[in-house]
Amino acid sequence: MEQTEHLAKLLKNLPAKPGVYLHLDARGKILYIGKAKDLKKRVSSYFRGEKDAKTAALAAKIAEFSTIVTQSETEALLLEDSLIKKHKPPYNIDLKDDKRYPYLKLTTEKYARLIISRQRFNDGGKYFGPYAGSVRDALRAVQGIFGLRRCKTLGKKPCLYFQIGQCLAPCLGGKEAEYQKEISALTDFLRGDYAALSADLQKQMAAAAQNMDYETAAHCRDKLQALEKVMVTQSVVAPDNISRDVWGFAAGQNIWAAVLLRIQHGRITGSRSFSAGGKRALASDSFERLLMNFYSDETIPAEIILPAEYACGAFTAWAGARQARVWQPQSGFRFDFVQMGVYNARKYLQERIMAQLREASPADGLKRLQEILALETLPRRIECYDISHIQGSETVASQAVLLDGVPGKSEYRKYIINQDKPDDFASMEEVLTRRCMRLDDSNRPDLVVIDGGKGQLGVAVRVWKNFDLTIPLCALAKREEEIFVPRRGEPLVLPRRDAGLRLLQTIRDEAHRFAVSFHRLRRKKRTLAE
Asked: What is the structure's pLDDT at 231?
């Protein structure tokens, strides 16, 4: 009651101004940092009306909050980003860049080298990229085309690359003007000006051929062929040479993804992907926060093109103050760019969702099984049984075990079935009966899974009744991946990516693998004996 009254007093005194708010728990730990155009309306919304589950969970933990008033929403966005980076609150979205793409860097040495750098430093070097493709292959090709030195220190005599015509050998001295000309051409090339370099090489090749300097002409031809392999194979997509960044954005239930397409000289020269998810629902300004965070560390191009459906007023004003024009088009070639960005963002979102499912911990599957099967306790020990034979010969059974969601292979068991004729139901009844006869508290499962359908499950229910057992049961049918549960008429059908289903599939596949390998071993021994 005291806490409610305390928060009510704080809410009453909130200003209707832009700023940043910090939610804290009872121990004074920062739970969440947000920005608002109107602090009074935004902070009050956490304590009234209906909320989604994640926001409700956050609100239940709030014991205190504080605010910082700013002059504008843009200042609030910048301050929020700074505070999040400093405090890393648990309920703020965790932004992930898909990877740190490499750059190509021209060093500041007298005879510059072209090297790969994973980071950009303020060291005077020229950086190009980032590149998402095979940057090492491009580096080797470019070094050969432009004759750049590869040695970290200049030697006293030319290396092998000079002998094969891939290095200008600045170590011989007196080649500074020629070397700088190549560096200038390389710089234009890496900035995306492929057409000018290609035209210049063709002109040189034609002049050399006319003067019957066939060696120089052949060298120019080889350069052109190499350039064709290195050049970005995008068609011209813009009617001008303005440098642009195009963004696409896509949001799922609890994750979003964004893709940046970088356009220079009318060509797409690179891309980057971002995703984020967290313990709270997606914020309405997630995209704007990403943009502000990204361009606080990156050079801003002349144009930034964004999807029209996202409110980015604060970022637009911030970028405009830095001489960058923000477009949110609904027609024209810029709109085509946005469509391309959104398509790639949706594709990347799908990839991130799939990755999350692959990376889901066994604990997620166990909790999901407890939920969908209405189990009283978490199924820490799960056993699965499968029958294997060929036309009734050498019938065997297997017992696979998951301990806390991980295969416990020391607990696996093999059974030789003593049946005179092929009968999967009778075989399942035999193996389950033998298992129940050695059941004790030390090896009692929390869940037993039968590889099969409704019929196999009925056999297990009959055995359980004979031994007066209450251990939870279910069966997993292979074809449609239906889950059969006792006393339930219709099977459970879960999405193929469901964490609980994936765990059932894991133990079912393990039991099947173990049974088939044992059956093959028995059959091999019998064949050798005969």
From this structure: 54
Q: Which residues of 271-295 are buried (b: 16+ CB within 10 A; e: fewer)?
A: bbbbbbbbbbbbbebbbbbbbbbbb
What b/e sequence results for 328-366 when a residue is b if at least 16 CB atoms lie within 10 Å of its CB, and e otherwise?
bbeeeebbebbebbbebbbebbeebbeebeeebebebbb
Q: Token pair of 472, please?
A: 């939870």
Residue 303 DSSP SS3:
strand
Cα(232)–Cα(394) distance, rounded to whole angstroms?
61
What are the residues whose beta carbons fall under 8 Å from the beta carbon of 238, sequence distance 6 or more? Answer: 244, 263, 266, 333
For tokens 């946005």, the residue is: 338
Residue with tokens 């085509």: 336
Locus of tokens 């609890």: 254
Instruction: Give the count of beta carbons closer than 10 Å to the beta carbon of residue 139.
Output: 19
Compute CA 500 distance to the chain's CA centroid, rounded to the nearest angstrom. Answer: 22
**Residues forming a β-bridge with 114:** 106
Enumerate residues 6+ apart whose C-beta is below 8 A from 246.
260, 261, 262, 263, 305, 337, 338, 340, 341
Cα gap 360→354, rounded to integer Å: 10
Q: How far is CA 16 from the centre of its chain?
A: 39
What does the DSSP 8-state code read for residue 170?
A: G
- Cis bond leading into 307, ω under 30°? no
Q: If residue 316 lies in a helix (H) or strand (E), which one and from where to where?
A: helix 313-320
Joined tokens for residue 525: 């021994």
Evaluated on CA atoms 441, 446, 451, 454, the torsion sign reads positive
- Indicate the residue type of 247: W
Nearest CA-CA partner of 414 in 433, 429, 435, 393: 435
Separation between Cα atoms, residue 99 and residue 333, nearest integer Å: 29
Q: Supply the pLDDT for residue 352.
A: 73
pLDDT at 462: 96
Instruction: Say if strands 303-305 and 244-251 run parallel, antiparallel, or are unpaired.
Output: parallel
Cα torsion 185, 186, 187, 192 to 10°: value is 100
Helices (H), 129-175: 135-146, 160-163
Using DSSP, state whether 269 is helix, strand or coil: strand
Parallel, antiparallel or unpaired: strands 406-407 and 413-416: unpaired
> Using one digit for the tens of pLDDT, what is the confidence trace for 301-359?
999 999 988 888 889 998 888 889 999 998 888 888 888 888 878 877 777 766 665 56
- What pLDDT score does 469 carry? 94
Beta-bridge partners for 451: 476
CA gap 383, 448 in Å, rounded: 5
Q: Which residues of the chain have pLDDT under 50?
A: 1-2, 232-236, 279-281
pTM of the model: 0.42
